[in-house]
From TrEMBL:
It comes from Cognatishimia activa. The chain crosses the membrane at residues 7-29. Residues 175-184 have a biased composition (Acidic residues). This is Cell division and transport-associated protein TolA. Residues 75-85, 94-106, 137-148 have a biased composition (Low complexity). The keyword ATP-binding does not apply. Residues 71-246 are annotated as: Disordered. SUPFAM superfamilies: TolA/TonB C-terminal domain.
Amino acid sequence: MKSRFNIGHVVSGGAHTLLIGYVLFGGVFSSEPEPPVVTGVDIISTEQFERILNADRPPLTADDVETPVAPEISEAPPEVVTEPDPVTPPAPPKAATAPEPEVTPEVEPPVEQPVELTDTAPEITPPAEPDVAPDQSVRPVSRPVTRVAPEAVETPEPDVQIADVDQAPTAPAESETESIEAQEETAREEAAPEIPTEPKSGAVTSSIRPKARPNRPTPPATPAENDTQAAETQTESRESSVNDALAQALAETPAAPSGPPLTSGEKDALRVSVQECWVVDVGSQAANVTVTVAMSLDRDGKVVGGSLRRLSATGGDENAANAAFESARRAILRCQRGGYKLPIEKYDHWRDVEITFNPEKMRRR
């Protein structure tokens, strides 16, 4: 009980102490009051207030719109109003008179003087000839060539003979056994130790090449020479004619092939072998060309190199014929392979073969 009583006293005393302290010292911790807000007010009348309100509102639209009444048109003709006479403006004041132009004095044309006619023609002075380069240069005069020698030699006298060594004149020796001619005085040609340099000259250094000299006419041959030449010509012509006759006889009589000829089956086999590799271009002009090709075969049935040749071609121009021949040549070379299978005992008959390539029908002859 005693402890509870003490607690109540303490609480009561503390509360009273706080209250008394707040009353005494509460004004120290309070802030100053804020100043009052003052607003300016104007006094206006009611009419002014309504005008201010109506100014902010949009204008009211009238619901009832009055339709305008059309004016009455009178049937009477309108009165003609006479226009007043136009008023002519006053004439502008005359401008000041312009000054008169100055009168230029008339110039009299010059009077032509009469020309005196004479029978003598006036002298005409020829124009000065222009400097034209000549077509042919003037042949230059040969100048003395300076001879170069180890020792300088003076110019000899004009009547002294030029020689390689200087020699004094000798008198002729009077002797009965030998006659020795008197030796004339000789002197060496003028020479200089150095080649003098010649100054540059504007003369032409080359001239036009002269025309070739015409051939001399051949002297007429003597009658003996003419007879000899005629005999030699006849002998040569006789020998050449004999050789030509022998060559023609050998060419016209070839050796007859030995053995039996080829049968139709062997010919067809060769034709079919070549035909397998023959390609004809239907769209080209070569498809209309019939060409005959000749060739030579060896004993193995192979084409001899360089023996393929064109004998004839019909049905087109030269370009088409060449194209057809090339196609036939390729077919022959492509199909020979190891050689055409032909009987060796009949080699003399198929050594030289001619084949006609016809786009419509291929045949062998």
